[in-house]
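The records we work with from here on pair a chain with its fold. Taken together, the tokens spell out the fold as the letters spell out the chain. The record below shows the convention in full.
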Amino acid sequence: MQCRFCKTELELVFIDLINSPASNSFLTKEQLNEPEVFYPLKVYTCSKCFLVQVDEYKKSDAIFNSEYVYYSSFSTSWLEHSKRYVEMMTQRFGFNETSQVIEVASNDGYLLQYFKQKNIPVLGIEPTANTANAAEEKGIESVVDFFGVRLAETLAAKGIQADLLLGNNVLAHVPDINDFVGGMKIILKPQGIITMEFPHLMQLVENNQFDTIYHEHFSYLSFHTVKQIFEAHGLEMFDVDEIPTHGGSLRIYAKHKEDDSNSISENVTALLKKEADKGILNISYYNNFQQKALNVKLAFVQFLVEQRKAGKRVAAYGAAAKGNTLLNYCGIKNDLVDFVVDANPYKQNKYLPASHIPVVNEAYLKEAKPDYVIIFPWNLKAEITEQLSYIRDWNAKFVIPVPELSFV
């Protein structure tokens, strides 16, 4: 396997999570009796550019299809984050009714709706038809396609280019990152601005977030590496924010290299130094991650076995992809976790891949009254513990497995 950016031969294993099905491939009751396909989940570090990456074992068009069940609008905290972003960007850069905002991986219109409310023209690009249909119902024009050079050239030929091109949690999801960033160069107006948000590799390593590794994520990104990738395609970073979403993410700001309308912020140099000081440019930084994940596995499995022996009931909240990675790496099935609650009706009445744990609505939780509730999307811990605070009425506790086993 070669690095998807610089084509260096990959030899250093960052972590091997053995294998698992695609994390969002939920099952119907009928499918429980059918074979499941498992894919290797071995992640490599490039010794030249330090891009951490998994091979494209399952093709992206098979993952992001019409059966895709992730709808961004079901998280209130994510909606609030998106609304704050729109307010900040319009104030900082003055986008108005004459601007064109284009979002790549626009999902169900969760973010573009706030630009639309300000009468700013929007266009969504989204490969999953079902979520794009949900956006259309909000009045948001959507192109159902994968983004890259081909689509960028098609849109640009029609006179469609972006004053603001944005993408939240998509840069890590693309198998051909060179084609994706090359497309951004084409579709961006001469003085246009790009913002991308993605989980920060440094946070993944520092906080043992191995459960964020799954087949939808092809790359795990540092600022150092993303800067290299953008520069290779004639794009330049001019600012960066460290933000708390998804356990610690980056929001990068980029422009055409030849555009001098936005000066380079001190944040760029500061973050590069911060990463270097942590050791991110030293290959030894990536060497001990496997053991950290194993420690979580051992503690989590031991906890579940002890509760089962004691006759306690354990449930979970959030049928998130990271939860599926954790369950499958730990080899946990529905004999140790009774059910998982999720607010998304497209996941309810289905079963988690491999573990076959049933997905139910919140009313089921109130009726079952389990002794423990595992929070799989730990990045939404504050939102979930507040929403489900009533479980303390029957003396139940919340369980947070990552970065280490803890109780709330």
User: Anything to note?
Assistant: Residues 302-407 form a domain with the Rossmann fold fold (CATH 3.40.50.720).
